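Notes from the 1:1 (GR / supervisor)

We went over the backlog. Supervisor wanted to see one worked example end to end before approving the batch request, so GR pasted a single chain during the call. The sequence is below; no edits were made to it. Supervisor asked that the structure be written out right there so they could see what the output format looks like.
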Amino acid sequence: MRTLLVADDNRLSRELIRDVLESADCRVLEAANGREALERMEESNPDLVLLDLEMPVKDGFAVLGAIRGDPRFSGIPVVAVTAKAMQFDRDRIAGAGFDAYLIKPINNAELRRQVSELLGVPRPGEGQ
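Structure output shown during the call:
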């Protein structure tokens, strides 16, 4: 079972993402801010991280910098979660080193697709 970390200051957003991922047989850890996200990284070494970009204490960009700067975590796929969908925002996300991004409100099928793709897990009907 894969372990995923969801960091978002909005409890409802975390719960919705958790429900989708748990239904896909993933273990989901949660953090309500950037500091908690880094603490969870230390505790669990997740397989993938979903980071809200606008969180208190440390925003998603600061957390990504800490993840990429730590050799233990630098190879973990990190997905930006944001309500901003303008081209400038997408360019900034890609330039920062995120592996992918999801736009809020999150489409459940897109969430599952990106997680499967980043973890290298075939979706139903693939690889058979």
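Supervisor's comment: The two ends are 21 Å apart (CA to CA).
Batch request approved.
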